[in-house]
Design brief:
With about 140 residues, the protein is mainly β. The protein has 3 helices and 11 strands, in the order βββαββββββββαα. The strands form 2 sheets. It has an 8-stranded mixed β-sheet. A 3-stranded antiparallel β-sheet has the order 1-2-5, with no helix packed on it. The protein is globular.
């Protein structure tokens, strides 16, 4: 198993700082309609679990984007900070927020069948369909149809 690694980062204006400790840095991309609308394209996230520390929490606004998730952003500069599963408390955080972007492994794409044709990635990834997501995470079905 990899040794736990500390990563720090911040929003664009520096009002919110983030600290995570992770054993691996797996990067996923979501192509669902909500993520595309929120991110202006595919939403990239590092799965960070629940052990995420924020400094400047008073500068974070949240939007409940579905029955199961909230999305956090800096209320000063608008930087997308996270998506958090309300049930598990787990965070997905964009990799661009972190100062250290080494050793990140892009390994999965979800809602691959909703990916538009105007972009593609060259990395070989696990490609997960809507059908699989809806079967294993049924709470998402009404949110992405």
């Amino acid at each position: 198993m990899k040794e736990e690694e500390l990563r720090t980062g911040s929003c664009l204006c520096g009002a919110v700082h983030i600290e995570i400790s992770v054993n691996s840095v797996d990067l996923g991309v979501c192509h669902c309609s909500k993520c595309k609308k929120w991110a202006g394209g595919p939403f990239m996230e590092i799965e960070c679990g629940t052990a995420v520390k924020f400094l400047g929490e008073e500068n974070i606004s949240v939007y409940k984007s579905s029955e199961w998730a909230v999305r956090g952003f800096c209320k000063n500069c608008g930087t997308h900070l996270y998506i958090r599963d309300e049930k598990s408390g787990e965070y997905g955080i964009p990799p661009g927020l972190f100062e250290n972007d080494e050793n990140i492994e892009f390994n999965r794409q979800v809602f691959i069948d909703q990916k538009p044709s105007y972009y593609s990635f060259s990395e070989k990834t696990q490609n997960i369909t809507s059908e699989y997501i809806y079967k294993h995470f049924p709470q998402t079905k009404e949110e992405n149809t």
